[in-house]
Sequence to fold (112 residues):
Amino acid sequence: MPITVLVDAENVRRSRWPNVSRQELVRLARAWSSARGHALLVVFDGRAPEEADDLVGAGGTADDWLAAHAAEHVPCWVVTSDRELRERVGAAAERFVGGGAFLVELLGEQRR
Fold:
């Protein structure tokens, strides 16, 4: 069973200045997950930038959505630097990845 990578979109986007656009984050994350064979869900506060199976518009906060739904996607990794969210997700995540570290990896992948 493939790993599902759940991404706290705003946390990743805002980990760097200038912020990465929503569309650029989606493009980079899709390329990264495809290269690794991971399933992907990029979760946005409010609405997602487009309708797609790998994007979630939380309606409210991405944090609340991730805390409520991470266990539905086991085995999963959760990408966020938010300590409170990490505590809320807890054991549902096999691994946590910091938002800034993930963005660095995405941008490094783009240069290859």
